[in-house]
């Protein structure tokens, strides 16, 4: 990642890493408690859904930043 990367993208990526780690812990707890724990399974599903949304958002933000950086370089001749 470049130094020009905004703080918000770094925060989003850090949040995604934390969410991924939480999902791993939740999945491990689900396996320990047995397959019949519907509440835990629902929370895991919700966490995976949120992780997917964060991945999509990060891809969109990264593409927009790349485009903006390219346009700025074109303007300043860099």
Write the layout of secondary structure elements.
Elements: H1 7-33, H2 38-76
What does this structure look like?
With 78 residues, the chain is mostly helical. The chain has one domain. 85% of the residues lie in helices and 0% in strands. The protein is built from 2 helices and no strands. It has helices at 7-33, 38-76. Helix 1 (7-33) runs antiparallel to helix 2. The longest helix is centred in the C-terminal third of the chain and has 39 residues, at 38-76. It is rod-shaped, with a radius of gyration of 18 Å. 0% of the residues are buried. The mean pLDDT is 81.
Radius of gyration: 18 Å
Helix content: over 70%
The proportion of residues in beta strands is under 5%
Q: How does the major sheet shape up?
A: none
Shape: rod-shaped
Which spans of ≥5 residues are poorly predicted at pLDDT below 50? none
Order of helices and strands: HH
Distance between the termini: 18 Å
In quaternary terms, these chains amount to single chain
Defining key terms:
2 helices, about 80 residues, mainly alpha
Question: What is the gist of this entry?
Answer:
This protein has 78 residues and is an all-alpha fold.
């Amino acid at each position: 990642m470049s130094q020009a990367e905004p703080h918000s993208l770094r925060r989003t990526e850090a949040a995604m890493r934390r969410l991924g780690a939480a999902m791993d812990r939740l999945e491990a707890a689900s396996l320990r408690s047995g397959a019949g724990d519907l509440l835990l399974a629902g929370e895991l599903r919700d966490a995976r859904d949120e992780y997917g949304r964060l991945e999509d958002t990060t891809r969109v933000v990264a593409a927009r930043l790349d485009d903006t950086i390219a346009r700025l370089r074109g303007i300043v001749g860099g």
